[in-house]
Amino acid sequence: MVTDCSRIRGCVCGKWPLRCSYVVCLHFTTLSAYRAGFRTCTHSGDDDTTGNVIHCSRGVSGVGMTPISSVLEAANAGHANPMPMYTRWSCGIVARTGREIIFAAGLNQMSDYLEERVPESITNGLIRNNLASLSSGILAGYFSHVPHNLSTLKLMNPKKSYKDHFLDYAKGHENKLPNEWPTEKKQKLARVYALVAPRAMLVRTTQIVGTFILLNGGIYMMRDFSPF
């Protein structure tokens, strides 16, 4: 899907981004590996100290994914950001790190937390897992969307500050407010609107929900599999 979007943007902008299919595979493989590894360690840890350390690691595991996702996104932004790849990948990394931490927390802790609270009347383990992934994916998609937008804007135009990017982004919500309202009032409410109901959130949240269901569901079905 990332490469398809790249082709579309290449047709529109007249510049073709770098091919990054290998980065997509690396992103998916690494994400699956650390997810399975943390789950295995959590189940195998018997003492409270080990469990606390593992849960803390799972909470910040998104930091480890940030460089990979940064390279992935930078590879598709060459049409807008002419910086060389070795510096382009770091544009927007602060907001991107926040996004990945929220994503990792939703994929790990939140999914487990919600799965434990699925009604006991639902006995099928895979369905319970999918329902938890659906709920945690919605939450992760909602809370990570603004950091995602800011990281993307910063990647496309690294010379502008995060504050300026957010103010410009919020201006796009002013047309949803009544024209007769004072300008200052519209600006303030548009900023709140941009935080509470950001644009394009539904599409991205749907993608995240699908990712959570695939990863958590796949790991659940392979929970008893051992290659050794």
Can you give a write-up of this model?
- This protein is mainly α.
- 73% of the residues lie in helices and 0% in strands.
- The protein contains 10 helices and no strands.
- 29% of the residues are buried.
How would you briefly describe this protein structure?
The chain has 228 residues and is mainly alpha-helical.
Keywords:
single chain, 228 residues, mainly alpha, 0% strand, flat, disordered N terminus
Question: What secondary-structure arrangement, pairings included, does this model have?
Answer:
Blueprint: H1 2-13, H2 21-44, H3 48-59, H4 61-75, H5 85-88, H6 93-115, H7 125-156, H8 162-171, H9 183-196, H10 201-221
**What is the strand tally?**
0
Order of helices and strands: HHHHHHHHHH
**Outline:** flat
Uncertain spans, ≥5 residues at pLDDT below 50? 1-20, 33-51
The amount of beta strand, in percent, is under 5%
Spatial separation of the terminal alpha carbons: 34 Å
Percentage of residues assigned to helices = over 70%
- Return the average pLDDT rounded to an integer: 78
Number of discrete helical segments? 10
Radius of gyration: 20 Å
Sheet with most strands: none
Give the helix/strand class: mainly alpha
